[in-house]
Amino acid sequence: MNKPNKRFALRTYSRFPMQISMMYLGQDSSGQGIAQELSRVGCRILGKDPVVTGETLSVRIALPTFQNPLIIEQATVKWVKGLEFGVAFGQLDDRQADRLQRLLDVLIGSGSYSGRPAGSLNVKPRLPAA
């Protein structure tokens, strides 16, 4: 009988490579970092300060052309490897979900989803003012 492989997770949403400044704050952790991949349900972060698997964070992602950051009040740390970690977003309010979707739409339109490393992208996402 085959055992399920727990090393790999089946993803239902595409991830988009990017490099956007962000901040995170939890009960025991806080810091700044770079969101390196983003999807509708989570992101991969390279932080400056450590976090713990299972911790719930509040995440603020700086969006180009928006004065205010995208705010995700509940993001659960799913994995940690050094200062790199992945979070799964909790329920987003309608306004933040719409802002996230507009950013992803821009990334789709720019071709950022092609698998190229984020540093090689010459496209800076531009969103209409909110």
| Average pLDDT number | 78
> Beta-sheet strand percentage?
35-45%
Number of helical segments with 4 or more residues: 1
As a percent range, the share of helical residues equals 10-25%
> How many DSSP E strands?
6
Main pleated-sheet profile: 6 strands, antiparallel, barrel
Give Rg in angstroms. Answer: 15 Å
Strand order of the largest sheet: 1-2-3-6-5-4
SSE order in H/E notation? EEEEEEH
Derived from helix and strand composition plus strand pairing, the structural class reads mainly beta
Distance between the termini: 54 Å
Low-confidence stretches: 113-130
How does this model look, in words?
By secondary structure, this protein is mainly β. 13% of the residues lie in helices and 38% in strands. The protein has one helix at residues 94-110, and strands at 16-26, 30-38, 42-47, 56-61, 70-81, 84-89. The chain has a six-stranded antiparallel beta barrel. The longest helix has 17 residues, at 94-110. The protein is globular. The termini are far apart.
Question: Which descriptors would you attach to this protein?
Answer:
130 residues, mainly beta, six-stranded antiparallel barrel, 6 strands, globular, disordered C terminus
List the helices and strands and how they pair.
Elements: E1 16-26, E2 30-38, E3 42-47, E4 56-61, E5 70-81, E6 84-89, H1 94-110
